[in-house]
Amino acid sequence: MIQFYAYAEDAPSQAVLQKIIHSFNNQETTIFCFREGFPKIMNGFSKIKERLPACIEIGKNGLYSISLTDLDKEYCCPPSLIRNWLSIEDGKPIELPEKTLFRVAVREIESWIMADRKKFAKYFDLTESLLPTIPDKIRDPKKEFFSLLRKKERQKFRRMLPGKNSFIGPEYNDIMCDFIERHWLPTRAENNSPSLKRMMSRLRAIT
Q1: pLDDT tens, 160-178?
Q2: Is the bond leading into 194 cis (omega within 30 degrees of zero)?
Q3: Residue 134's pLDDT band (boundaries 50, 70, 90)?
């Protein structure tokens, strides 16, 4: 059994990590699990960035961790974010220990979630053909999702939509997490998301 400390930006990212580990254990011989109280929601990328040096230290001491963040719009690609985060004052890069997993969802965790296209379309009553075939290529996956929801005008999903002073609606996290927990499969989604496939490959390499 391999136990992970784990950190995620928000509730959907937390649910994604939990589902990945759960589905992985259905296929592989090595059992993965999270340490008690993990994955922790860090409420944005800055806290994950602050926590990363500690993850590196425990990795040097033989303990596993997973840090999951979004690429968002600030960086052009995961390597540019990683180079920025994993550097010290003199510019020399920090090498990650083998047991410190640092993964970047391109461009948002919604890319990974939408990549299970058939189930995503069915759950949210959307036309599958309108979903991006490779969500990683969409600059703003959350905005794209909101646009599709608005066109459908489904009352049950209306409270997922953001208001004037919010990025998401009051029921966004609850509904998205319900979809992840009950329907989303990373083993399907990885076929449409290169960054998710890299995450899955990294875990498979451990076994």
Answers
A1: 999 988 999 999 999 999 9
A2: no
A3: very high
Map out the domains of the chain as residue ranges. 2-109+190-206, 112-182
Cα separation values, 42 from 17, 51, 132, 198, Å: 13, 9, 28, 23
| pLDDT tens-place string over residues 36-46 | 999 999 999 99
Question: What is d(CA 111, CA 69) in angstroms, rounded to the nearest whole number?
Answer: 12
Q: Are 10 and 43 in contact (CB under 8 A)?
A: yes
Contacts of 64 (CB under 8 A, 6+ apart): 2, 3, 4, 5, 99, 100, 101, 206
What is the C-alpha separation between 191 and 11, in angstroms, rounded?
23
CA distance 132 to 118: 11
- Report the number of secondary-structure helices (H) and strands (E) in the chain: 9, 5
